[in-house]
Design brief:
Shape: elongated
Radius of gyration: 20 Å
Oligomer: single chain
CATH class of the largest domain: Alpha Beta
Largest sheet: 9 strands, mixed
Order of helices and strands: EEEHHEHEHEHEHEHEHEEHH
Distance between the termini: 30 Å
CATH superfamily of the largest domain: Periplasmic binding protein-like II
CATH topology of the largest domain: D-Maltodextrin-Binding Protein, domain 2
Structural class: alpha/beta
Number of helices: 10
Length: 269
């Protein structure tokens, strides 16, 4: 019998018959095996089947969702997913997961920040040492950077800062390496060996300020009459259940480092 989230994270019998929930998922969650493992847990608990119909960059999965190909979508919190809601394609956006960015830099480490876990203090040292920094075009990463700089009371030296119009990690790391500069990049793609790091070294990680949330939203029943909305809603609720969040907090430890692949969110008081 299918199950659905109930009070206090419990499960209760569901009247929704087993269905196939079509999902559009940001690429990193699929590439790491995380989504497949999570979906298997949901399928076992509910009897539904999860089908990934689109995976990749946010613009790709957002277009698939607009075409009505998916019942549920998840990506980083961004204007893209909020506009899906604002334009009537999606409903009920909820945070359910985080990933973390890291500060990387040249092995010479002119700012002396290697091994630090306080990003604000690291940026103070980058500024004080006159070190170069590369800012790329990802609005999410820029939001994280701005929040950290504001908390540190630091502004980057314009003469030492390069602003890029690309957020493609390989290009960003190549340019940072050429300039012997520091930059922000996702921990997973930097550590899993799927992209060349051009000799750059991980410097700062583990600061909660360097985390970005993912949001889940479901298809609008009014716009997409054939969408499996009830089953998609169950999946969205499942992602935020405390039991699922505890699993997230352990999944992938030891795969890249001593941290889980992704970070849980707080879903209760």
């Amino acid at each position: 019998m299918a199950l659905v989230a109930g009070c206090a994270g419990q499960t209760q019998p569901s009247r929704v018959p087993p269905e196939s929930v079509r999902v559009a998922v940001i690429g990193g969650q699929v590439e790491t095996g995380f989504w497949e493992a999570l979906a298997a847990r949901f399928e076992k608990a509910t009897g539904h089947r999860v089908e990934v119909v689109s995976s990749g960059p946010k613009r790709v999965i957002a277009e698939a969702f607009r075409r009505g190909e998916a019942d549920l979508i998840t990506m980083h919190a961004s204007d893209t997913i909020i506009n899906l809601v604002a334009d009537g394609y999606a409903t009920d956006p909820q945070p359910w997961l985080k990933n973390d960015l890291v500060i990387v830099g040249p092995p010479e480490d002119p700012a002396g920040i290697r091994g630090m876990t306080d990003a604000a203090e690291a940026f103070r040292k980058i500024k004080a040492s006159g070190s170069a920094f590369v800012v790329h075009a990802s609005l999410g990463a820029q939001d994280v950077l701005r929040d950290v700089l504001d908390s540190a009371g630091v502004s980057l030296d314009p003469e030492k800062t390069t602003l890029l119009f690309t957020d493609r990690a390989r290009e960003v790391l190549k340019i940072a390496a050429e300039k012997k500069a520091y930059t922000l990049v996702g921990r997973i793609p930097f550590l899993n060996g799927k992209m060349p790091n051009d000799g750059l070294v991980l410097m700062v990680r583990g600061d909660p300020q360097l985390r970005r949330p993912y949001v889940v939203a479901i298809a609008s029943a009014e716009r997409f009459r054939s969408a499996h909305v009830a089953a998609a809603r169950q999946l969205a609720e499942f992602l935020r259940q405390e039991e699922t969040q505890q699993w997230i907090a352990q999944y992938g430890k030891g795969q890249l480092d001593d941290q889980p692949l992704f970070m849980r969110v707080q879903v209760g008081p």
